[in-house]
Amino acid sequence: MSAPRKLSGLQKDVLRLYRDCLRAVRTKPEEAQPRFYAFTRREFEKNIGSMKRTDVKAIEYLMRIGRRRLEQYRNPNVRDIGQG
Description:
Order of helices and strands: HHH
Helix content: 55-70%
Distance between the termini: 44 Å
Number of strands: 0
Radius of gyration: 14 Å
Shape: elongated
Number of helices: 3
């Protein structure tokens, strides 16, 4: 059995953003939470297959977008999310 693979700092940042997004969903009304969860998962999965781990600039760019979106959705006035 081999030792678990260590994550890079960037990988840890992506996972941290994902966890923060999931935590933010719990602050939304119960009836809207499934839509927020689905949106969050879809946004993260959208780029998994098409992006290389070594494409640091693109990953950092998407992280900035993700952080901005998270801040928008953390706003208590945002009660639901539209499906697009």
